[in-house]
Amino acid sequence: MQEISLTDMLLRIGLSLVLGGIIGFERERDSQPAGLRTHMILVVGACLAMMLSINIASLADTDPTRLAAQVVSGIGFLGAGAILRSGFNVKGLTTATTLWTMAIVGLVVGAGYFAIAAITTVVIMIVLSVLDVIEKRFVRINVIRNITVEVHDHKGVIREVRKTIAHVADQVITFSVQKSLKSKTLRLEIVARFNRSDKLETLVEQISEIEGVKVFKIE
Length: 219
Known about the structure:
- By secondary structure, the chain is an alpha+beta fold.
- It folds into two domains: 6-138, no CATH class; 143-218, 2-Layer Sandwich (Alpha-Beta Plaits), CATH 3.30.70.260.
- It is 61% helix and 19% strand.
- The protein has helices spanning 6-29, 36-60, 65-74, 76-82, 93-111, 114-138, 157-168, 198-208, and strands spanning 84-86, 89-91, 143-152, 171-180, 185-194, 213-218.
- Helix 2 runs antiparallel to helix 3.
């Protein structure tokens, strides 16, 4: 196996920066935890690992895939850090997969397969941007929200709040009540599923019309 020259190494590092920047920019624009800098550094690091594997193999006659294999398995800790859980909702799975895939793109660049790396990056970009538009427009997306209502305790208010939420939401998952005897206030905590975000606006309007509502919060 032939050793990679310094000129080729610099070329591959430059291409890694560009490809990582393309996907990183899209993630940064979407306000994801792993954005432009993370993706660029990740792809360059994977590229360096692959080039080092090739050069070491050319000098010591070893397996050039061993170091690259460690990159593929070790990148999992970055992906795990990009996944965020908020109640019943999980965010960051797409970013975690782009981190893992772009690490492999970096290995591909390091191995010298420039065209495949570029095509793969374009395909990922299409999936992230074009399919995102299609998904939001045509695919039914369910969101789960934690709802807190503090209301003055009076006859029938619990039933009224529950009926209002059940009418707007697709499913009421949990419904709990806390009662303060001193201030005669009820604290209602509800977890509900909605298939469209615009339903939340309707819910805000209807809950606000209920007599005695002091606090209304959606998370």
